[in-house]
Input
Amino acid sequence: MEEIKMKNIKKIIIVFLLIMPLTAYLKSEEKKSSLNAAGLIKNPKVDISWNRYYDSSQIKDIMIRLEKAFPSLAKVYSIGKSTEGRDIMCIEITNFKKGNPDRKPGMYIDGNIHGNEIQGSEVALYTAWYLLENYGNNKKITELVDGRVFYIIPTINPDGRDWFIHYPNTPNSSRSGKKPVDDDLDGLIDEDGYEDLDGDGNICQIRIKDPNGRWKPSSEDPRVMVRCKPDEKGTYTLLGLEGIDNDGDGRINEDGPGGYDLNRNWPFNWQPEYIQRGAHEYPFSLPETRAVGEFVLKHENIAAFQSYHNSGGMILQGPGQKDTPYAFQDAGIFEYIGKKGEEIIPGYRFVTVYKDMYTVWGGELDWFYLGRGILGFSNELFTSDNYFRKKTPPYQERRTRMFEPDKEPYDFNDLLLFGDAFVDWKPFKHPQFGEVEIGGFKKNFTRMPPSFLLEEECHRNAAFTLFYADCMPQVKIQNVEVKKIDGDLYNIWVTVENQKMIPTRTAQDVQNKISRPDQVKIYGENIKVLSAGFVVDKYTGVVTPVEKHPEYVEIPTLGGISTRIVQFTIKGKGSIKITIDSVKGGIGQTEIKI
Amino acid sequence: MKAFKSFPILLIFLFLVFNLYIYPEELKVSFSNYHNYDELTTALKAINEKNRNISKLISIGKTLQNRDIWAFEITNYKSGIPEKKPGILVVGNVEANHLIGSEISLFLINHLLSNYGKDENVKKLIDQNVFYFIPRANPDGAEFMFKNPKYEQKFNLKPWDNDRDGKVDEDPPEDLNGDGIITTMRIKDTEGEYIIDPEDKRLMKKADITKGEKSEYKLFLEGIDNDKDESFNEDWPGGININQNFPFEYKFFSEGTGMYQVSENESRALADFSVSHPNIAIILTFSSNDNVLFPPKPSAPARATDQFQLPSGIVLPPEVSMEQIRAFLGRMPEKNVVKEDIPYFTYVSDIYKKSTGIKPEFQPQKINGNFSDWGYFHFGDLSICARVWFPPEIKEERKMPSPEQMSPQVPPQFAQLMQRREQAEGQEKEGIDEKKILKWFDRDKIDGFVQWQKIKHPDFPDKEVEVGGIKPYITINPPEKLIEELGKKHSEFFVQLAGLLPKISISSTKTENLEKNLYKITVELTNNGYLPTGLTHPVNARRVRPLKVELKLNGQKMIAGNQISFIKSIDGMNKTHKLTWIINGKKGSKFIVNVDSQKAGEISKEIVLN
Output
């Protein structure tokens, strides 16, 4: 038996070795003969289609494939388990052979916090793939992977994602994870959710003919239901979404799976359910948010935060609540990066959550910035601009427009998707309502890009995020000047710099003492540090002394693109090591000899 | 093989069981000393073993030092499912230094169980309700009282970089005079802010520049500068104060509150235990804050939405109220007990004052993020908090005449105003007055003060350093001889408190034959307890489910009425609620009406059509 097996394996290997060069030859021929599009990744080690959506296990597979293909650049691990026991997978990307990854300025990226907002995962995954495949081929990307570390968690709500993908749903259902909640306070949990009555895999609308109804089909397009004007009589009543009354309480779909909002479960400005719907029991009461929270607290080097939601074409900044404004010193940086995003992603607008949308208590954005002093943005992916490249009206205006017929998605569905995204109204005999009609858009339309637009969405958003990642602080010792005072007494002037735009500690961080200050340290076997001070004016040489521990001088923060000169007065000689050590700006080191 | 391996374990187990059998018949729990963790655990286990049919001891979490956080459940398991009975949760030691809370909790447990067979009222309470005790909420922190040196602190042992220097717990206090306790250290230094208090030479006070006082001393906690950063004991062991780690009015970035709300094993255990027992209707917390001697007072309701603009083109039906719109658009969080709920707090306060005879000596300091407030504002219960004991205050008599006693020349409005101001002044006084503490030590001959004593301090070789001051734990926990008496007083209070729980009953059912097989059914529900089935704020905050009344029909047909109906809440003191249905069914046929209340029990009754 054993022998036969071995023989077979040998055969397989031989055949494989013969075929391998042949296929490589064929492939390269194919590539040679075509013109490379600008920005193309020519021979990706991991080939991934960016025009389709993946469920949580497929995403995990892709992450593992990336790790295998780039073992020195990527590590894949689970940061915790979801309610239903799925792993929350993180791919950590940096050049692991260069420096300690925990001490490089870090960027944290996540997506899909809301179960139905799934394309964030593809964008995050694309970012990981793009960084890895371009390493060594592209100067900017190589610099980012060498000097920075990326913690990318494509989906922090894998339960919600798989629920949305594999079960009948609407474009909006459900935001929640899968921990059961008694939504209707009847003592039962998750007892009355949607039912896919017509079995087409989508939860659509139910309408019933009603001479006293307040709705009617639009005169321009009978598929579109329009609310009647105050002086008009209607022909239909809308009965909500597909489903039946499971628990006999006279209501339909009032207690479906889950029943909370992971993006209202974060500690800063958290308020309970009666103030903020979806808050759940207390901050981080859910395994998913808790896992991310603990992960972020463990990685103090995280200097930037990016999350991906849908939809509306917005780059959001906090605060979610008007009584806790952002520190004015930091506002300019948000503005600069956000506005750059508007350029990189046409159709997207840079807006503030509470001003331009609504009040949010306990949102992820606010915890990162207000709670941890980390800059952060949330991108609302996909905009109806994409339909016919028309400018999206602001969110507030769109709210009022919700009461007028909006034909654009219907026309787009007809002209560009050839009708694939709409379920036509069809009669159905409902157990409680009687003769009704069921129809409407499928769950994969209106909030998600259709296949042919997904790759563009991924690339533009990844490009914005990488621009933003490049703004993270980076400290360095720019210059060391040794001035002899007398005998073996020396003054050493150390110029430390932050080479990038974001300060090593944001104003929010400094004001609330969230992380420790940056430290400039001097060390030598044969030296004694007598005093230290800040050089206030390098031309006149004015120095303010530092009172405590001259071996390490604390700097509250190094602003964007700025330098600071520290003077050490030492006695002795030999080799001296000088370090700038910043929690979020990394480490800069140099050695001199006297 | 496996069976053999576990044989020794089995032997040990049998030995333990045997040991428990020969335990003396009458279990005596001693209250002559404060229990350390191991002693408390032993006592709880022993009590539980004695009362297995009506008690249960469960671990609801582990601390960082791997101690179990114990919850002790008391109810009659034969009289229904515990989670369906009205419950009271008692929490002690939610602040590490408040050991008296643990003792009183243990006393209550012992009192209830040892009176089950003797006292009819106690038996009824245990049969009908369920009591949960978490006597020691911060076991790691509490052990500091039993350690050498004794060092009073309110935290758990979560490693914490208090001074943000990148190092954790690197500069704890030290016992420099070798007396086994950590007190204060004063250093003669004109750079300091303190002087010896001229009124009582044992105490220190801040130099008052308006009186021309020249400062002479620096004050620190007893200890050395371990990390040579020229600060003293600035990064002590731990930690987080569990009683500042809850989400109501939580303070970010403040000493001892933690990284975020409910971040600690201990607070998480408390929160999760509460949340998984929604039948708890009253929470009684023992800690340094108090709302039982200082019950909440009416105040302005939370800010409502300022403005509301209807999107154009929308016409709302006239029955929609502005209140509904406000509730929908954006309520602001309640910060004070709502006025409808205040009477219940007031009544409990009266019971407490009467049954314990305890008088407030000062207003305890307000604590942000405390467990008790969370219990009302977020969890949704009548949540009361008692300090248990105040160091007696020896005060100078100064009494304002009551309005009646005042001379007729003083206008009554003015007299009232004076009185109100007097009360307000009493309320404003927060915290402990050390001078009065020392007077109490003197009067009752309590060894509570360490006389200032010169020591040699390595960090101040050239300076005069002395160690002394009020001993730790002594102003928060009563002398041991008072524990038993306080336990008795609180038992009396607790039994009365348990009598306030809501209790739902079906007080009457009526069937009227309308025509042939058509019946009108009327059911009347009564709340026989004192508390409503849900307080107003908790009901509005969706923390209390409405009562659910369900007809479990048996072939009959519903003509009018809901098979399942919901009632927001029914007030206590025998207030009733009536429900009617029209049903089509055969004469003599039966069905069941079931009433389910989250905090007032579940009950059902059979109804016969005739």
Notes: Chain B touches chain A at residues 161, 164-166, 228-230, 246-247, 250, 252-253, 259-263, 271, 275, 311-315, 330-333, 377-378, 540-543, 545-546, 548, 562-564, 566, 596, 598 (CB under 8 Å). Confidence is low (pLDDT under 50) at residues 20-24, 397-401 of chain B. The CA atoms of residues 393 and 436 of chain B lie 6 Å apart.
